[in-house]
Amino acid sequence: MKHVAIALLGCGTVGKGIVDLLEKNADLIEEQLDTKITIKRILIRNLAKYERMDLPKSIALTTEFSDIINDDDIEIVVEVMGSADFAKECIEACFKKGKSVVSANKDVIADYGIPLLKMSQEHNVDFQFEASVAGGIPIIRPMYSSLNSNRIDRIIGILNGTTNYILSNMTERGLSYEDVLQEAQDKGYAEADPTNDVSGYDAARKIAILATLGFHSAVTFRDVAVEGIERITQEDISHAEEMGYAVKLLAIATQSDDGISLSVHPAFIPKQHPLANVSGAYNAIYVRGNGVGDVMFYGQGAGAFPTASAVLSDVMNVILHTNLTITGKRGYVWHQVPLVDPSHIEAPYYLRIIVDNAPGVLSSIAGIFAENGISIRSLIQKDETKEVAEIVLLIDSSADGLVRDALQRMTGLSCVRRIANAIRVIEI
Ligand SMILES: NC(=O)C1=CN([C@@H]2O[C@H](COP(=O)(O)OP(=O)(O)OC[C@H]3O[C@@H](n4cnc5c(N)ncnc54)[C@H](OP(=O)(O)O)[C@@H]3O)[C@@H](O)[C@H]2O)C=CC1
Ligand SMILES: N[C@@H](CC=O)C(=O)O
């Protein structure tokens, strides 16, 4: 039997998951590859923390990347540290030394994916990153391989486990945003800085990676219009429930003759839609191709073992490529495609506006919508006190720019106390 030594950069939630899953499934993996995979070294920052951890004694822990890059036994390096710049430096150094890299790090791939893939090919090594989008769900390989006979025009996903866990637990258990965020952190779903999750940036990086592969287009996460879930309250969730919707953070990429549009935002989805029933840390992705039609991928988008499953399969793929002598030979094509201005994207909206409880307020608001050509589908006045009322509206499909302009003008009305929320309604 052959033997391949690998190293891990990082041993947090995902790194420890890889150590444990490799131990658990070693015989199955060895049998398929006729190769024994050994984790020889792991890079971390704080040695004392890991000496307390239950790691096999055969693994050498180090705080020096040079111990890994200069070890010629190590053929594959698995980067599971997070953040972009140091990870990128390490990955480039590995390529230069002829080491293939597997990464779960969407930050580095959304920022530097195309140059890193080019560099890996120049050095005849593999660069694989299945776990960077939607944890354990196989989606990267389908995008560049299983679906590559299709012209893909739409990708819609719940791509962040933390925010989906927060929104579904706020809905199902009536918990506060802060309490559920802490739970998601305790379960290892959240990023080291959970701002990336709740602000939508984690999902933005993932949809940029999928759009790059699926649309053969050179986009980055900076091309994504991003809104997070920070403003979603129990009020919005219960209004959604009453109206027959679930609230989800969606990542949407579409390609048309006008160009590519990329966005991440909370949305009301009809309860009967399959995406509305994706709960907890689960993720789901709809892809529409002009041959295959609609395909949906579903599974755990975060957590130690689901993510380790994707990472280890990538490691196995690298070994297979080495055995077949096709390492570093994957072909890619990227075009520069124009981006659609996000202010032109149309959708129906749910709006919650806090106003004075006074005569003439509703007609002032309706007047501004009418001036912007926006028609009101329904309007309910709720939670009325003597002084204040909450108005919940659904408006017909309208361009985002026109809706924002109308809401901005409303904040200038003395009877409008605040725009509590504006959330798109998805009718798919
Ligand atoms: N958690 C999840 O469910 C998923 C995570 N990912 C991605 O996988 C990667 C790892 O995530 P996760 O395991 O959750 O992160 P953790 O924060 O749990 O672990 C990070 C690990 O990397 C080490 N590390 C970080 N920076 C450095 C550095 N500069 N030098 C040396 N070691 C470093 C840390 O060491 P120390 O403790 O000593 O600081 C720690 O061992 C991220 O890119 C994340 O986005 C992808 C899919 C799912
Ligand atoms: N923090 C991420 C982890 C996986 O990518 C998430 O919550 O989805």
TrEMBL record:
<dbReference type="Pfam" id="PF01842">
    <property type="entry name" value="ACT"/>
</dbReference>
<dbReference type="InterPro" id="IPR019811">
    <property type="entry name" value="HDH_CS"/>
</dbReference>
<dbReference type="Pfam" id="PF00742">
    <property type="entry name" value="Homoserine_dh"/>
</dbReference>
<comment type="pathway">
    <text>Amino-acid biosynthesis; L-methionine biosynthesis via de novo pathway; L-homoserine from L-aspartate: step 3/3.</text>
</comment>
<keyword id="KW-0028">Amino-acid biosynthesis</keyword>
<protein>
    <recommendedName>
        <fullName>Homoserine dehydrogenase</fullName>
        <ecNumber>1.1.1.3</ecNumber>
    </recommendedName>
</protein>
<dbReference type="Pfam" id="PF03447">
    <property type="entry name" value="NAD_binding_3"/>
</dbReference>
<keyword id="KW-0791">Threonine biosynthesis</keyword>
<keyword id="KW-0486">Methionine biosynthesis</keyword>
<dbReference type="InterPro" id="IPR036291">
    <property type="entry name" value="NAD(P)-bd_dom_sf"/>
</dbReference>
<dbReference type="InterPro" id="IPR005106">
    <property type="entry name" value="Asp/hSer_DH_NAD-bd"/>
</dbReference>
<dbReference type="InterPro" id="IPR002912">
    <property type="entry name" value="ACT_dom"/>
</dbReference>
<feature type="domain" description="ACT">
    <location>
        <begin position="350"/>
        <end position="428"/>
    </location>
</feature>
<keyword id="KW-0521">NADP</keyword>
<dbReference type="InterPro" id="IPR045865">
    <property type="entry name" value="ACT-like_dom_sf"/>
</dbReference>
<dbReference type="InterPro" id="IPR016204">
    <property type="entry name" value="HDH"/>
</dbReference>
<comment type="pathway">
    <text>Amino-acid biosynthesis; L-threonine biosynthesis; L-threonine from L-aspartate: step 3/5.</text>
</comment>
<keyword id="KW-0560">Oxidoreductase</keyword>
<dbReference type="InterPro" id="IPR001342">
    <property type="entry name" value="HDH_cat"/>
</dbReference>
<comment type="similarity">
    <text>Belongs to the homoserine dehydrogenase family.</text>
</comment>
